[in-house]
Amino acid sequence: MTLDPALADALWPYFVVLFAGFLPSEIWRWSAVFLSRGFTDQDEVIIWVRCVSGALLTSVVAKLLISPSGALTAVPLSLRIGALVAGVAASLLLKRSTMVAILAGEAVLLTGAWLLR
Amino acid sequence: MAILQAETSADAQSVGFWAWRGVKDAFGVPSLVLGASMIAVGGLAHDVGYPLGATVLSTIFIWAAPAQVILFGLIAAGASVPVLAVAVGFSSVRFLPMCMTILPLLRRPGTRTFTLLAASHYVAVTNWVEGMRRLPPLPPDARLPYFFGFANMVMLSATIATGIGFFLVAHLPSLFGAGLLFVSPVYFTAALARAARGRADVYAMLLGFALTPLAINVLSSGFDLVCVGLLGGTIAYFAGRGHRQRSAREEALRTNPTDAEDIAP
Asked: Cβ–Cβ of B208/A51 closer than 8 Å?
């Protein structure tokens, strides 16, 4: 069976999304369905895995701050860190609201970036 | 919905009630936050010359903004499919611990494996961090319909945002672009802090931040985050467990001084 080259070219991006995007991500999620069998959220192993997830996610955030992509690269590192600290501090002071964190963080980031322009 | 109605012991009306409550709770900050990140992802796909259909489907099927950024970034660099798959696979390792902690909250006796596989697909940072906070107080039978409602609402707005970003991002002023990209880091940090249930969670966050600059310089990309997660998470777990045991012993000492020796590990 041969595919029309024009059609093959058109389908290629979908093939890439499926085999290089969907499957390598989904394999971890599906493995967890079988690995988590028989555990409750109070089990020590799951508490440990929860700590690993927490450290891993903050690490993702730290990496986004240290080596960002796109337009955020134009903002200096100290301002990126300062804005994050300001946002989280504001949220902790005001009922732990995530909306407050976003508004305060963005206010610091955008004001700082505008002043430094 | 058919899956849910067939197997939750709650009646169909209450399944609908909890699913709709999930939709309503997701409509707001969680949807807006992920939408902001997906505008950037859509713009990136547009920049590397990807078609709109495959870009939008990548949000639905991959359901991981960092994996999409890696995918489109490496496509632009001309990487082959196996290289792309390995890079995405490494960045998505985090779904294993994330799913392992949220699935025990969703699973009920008799929940079908297919339902859990479907639920696991929706696990990404936003749904995980919101789910870890919102699911435990809910009645166990309400959690699955709530999660499906919440997660589908977040996915709908993320998908729309991907399409918007595809057309819009070239026309945005750069200050606005920087603001969009900053939404997720600040939201994730605040949401994690809000979902923290004990000292171990707080230690895990602090170690995650502290160890990352070190790991980025020492380890190759792909391994760095996983190593920070394993090392920081394990230290946080033992520190938290030590604290839990000390509190348990003090509590026992207060309530029944003579038996306190038995509790000591």
From this structure: no
In the predicted structure, residue A101 carries a pLDDT above the cut 80: yes
Are B205 and A18 within 8 A, CB to CB? no
Mean pLDDT of the residues in chain B: 87
Distance in angstroms (rounded) separating the CA atoms of residues B236 and B233: 5
Of B151, B173, B195, the last residue of a domain is: B195
ipTM value of the model?
A: 0.86
Residue B263 has pLDDT above 80, yes or no: no
**Whole-number Å distance between alpha carbons of B36 and B25:** 18
- One domain, residues B28 and B159: yes
- How sure is the predictor about B195, in pLDDT bands with cuts at 50, 70 and 90? confident
Mutate to test the interface with A, among B61, B115, B130, B182 (most CBs of A within 10 A): B182
B112 and B211 in a single domain? The answer is no
Euclidean distance between CA atoms B103 and B106, whole angstroms: 5
Same-domain check for residues B182 and B204: no
Domain that holds residue B17: 2-195
d(CA B31, CA B40): 15
Sign of the CA dihedral B42, B43, B48, B52?
positive
Is the CB of A55 less than 8 angstroms away from the CB of B193?
no
Of B168, B195, B222, which residue is a domain's last?
Answer: B195
Contact B186 A105 (CB under 8 A): yes
Out of A14, A58, A88, name the one closest to residue B54 (CB).
Answer: A14
Encoded amino acid at A94, one letter: L
User: In the predicted model, is pLDDT for residue B236 greater than 90?
Assistant: yes
Partner residue facing A36 (CB), from B104, B229, B234? B104
Query: What is the pLDDT averaged over residues A15-33?
Result: 95
